[in-house]
Amino acid sequence: MTAELLLDVENLSLTIRGNPILQAVDLCVRRGEIVALIGPNGAGKSTLVRSVLGLIRPDGGRIALKPGLRIGYMPQRLSVDNTLPLTVRRFITLGTPVSRGQILETLAEVGAEAVVDSPVQAISGGELQRVLLARALLRQPDLLVLDEPIQGVDLNGQYELYELIGAVRKRRGCGILMVSHELHWVMADTDQVICLNRHVCCSGHPEHVARDPAFLELFGEGARSMAVYHHHHNHRHNLHGTVVEPAEDGAHG
Fold first, then answer.
1. Can you give the pTM of this predicted structure?
2. What is the CATH number of the domain that holds 188?
3. By the 8 A CB rule, do 152 and 77 touch?
């Protein structure tokens, strides 16, 4: 039985000041599925995401969302003025009023409950990305849209965030549309990769895309040896990426 269709984008096109940004783009995301959107800078990835979120009106094509679809969005970056007194607890509830219990539960799910009362400006890059993910999860989303979720995070923190995203998908059964800059940071258990350079260059399972001539032409032959992200270890890291203790029962932190 085919999983429930959450998002269906068909023949999407957008031109800005005579410059074609998106050309006949198709993609779909089903419940429980991870779809990774990759491509170089200027490929139209963020524009496509903003179109899906309803922030940009395309010139042509169709965007169909499941009726009543709840979307949780994790932006690519966040800048908070240092003079603004804003704790993590207050930040993640902006526009989403929830109880303190729900806040703590969701922060615990992403491993960031320790920073609940910290100023947003004082937490690390890895902590901030987890807080942003928690904010998206507070909406109880059917679809998670993650715009380069590992940006500004060190190597071990990147491993941990990808494992966390995979765990969220398994636990909640939501669909995930994730923007990534390069294929070698796409998760090994991604269901589909869409390689975008204003149009869809190629798509399919990560291992298939890694061998596709269109992908190799776009990223160079060196990309073949880098794809695809795999990470298995028998330990866990704290929010700063430091190994803290062996994992139990195969857990990865």
1. 0.83
2. 3.40.50.300
3. yes
